[in-house]
Amino acid sequence: MAHVHGCGFYSLHDGQEQPTGGGDLIGSLFPNFGLLGLDELVANHKYCRDPETLHDTEGLGDDRIQVARQQQAGEVAHMFLDTYLPFAENGSGDLLYVDIRGGQQQGFVREFGWEVADDCDPVSASLTDYVDSVRISIESGTEHSGLLPTFEEGALIWDVDYSDSPPPVPPPKPTVIRIPFALTTFLPSQIGPEDDLIDLDVVRQAIIDTA
Q1: If I label 69, which of 104, 127, 137, 164 is the partner at 20 to 30 A Cα–Cα?
Q2: Domain residues of the chain, as ranges?
Q3: b/e map of 168-187 (b: 16 or more CB within 10 Å)?
């Protein structure tokens, strides 16, 4: 059962130290997500289930809550359910959670977005698989969730993976414009009839005539 795995997990790891704005650099255990402590898990679950916090389901029908309770794991409820077990958050309202509803996808790790609710693809088939995939990424230095594991001052930092990005296009070479006077000493009275100037109105009209 997924919730048994969660209990075993928290017997080993009760969250991680959170940044306070000063002191030593603090990294993140998961890519873009910090591991919640058990007290933080309970607080997040309670907050997300608060009636004032629940996503607006007015357009989904009056019986939406009853329908959601009958759904199987993996189905989109458009709200945070009491059968969602959050274990990580990214500081912007998004959570990683274990879906402990019944069904073939019971125990799957999914992402809950502050804007899209639970309308997200599965992240992993279990909490165990997710943690193991992060371990492999850290040990091998390979990408996970679009991020690369790096270490700064002993802290695990996840940086954006640009390996698949096309090489930057070099800027065009500057165009040299020759003018018959120094910019610092130009005065309109210094323009003579023999100076080679461009009449922009003539150029504009020539383009129009050509078109």
Answers
A1: 127
A2: 2-140
A3: eeeeeeeeeeeeeeeeeeee
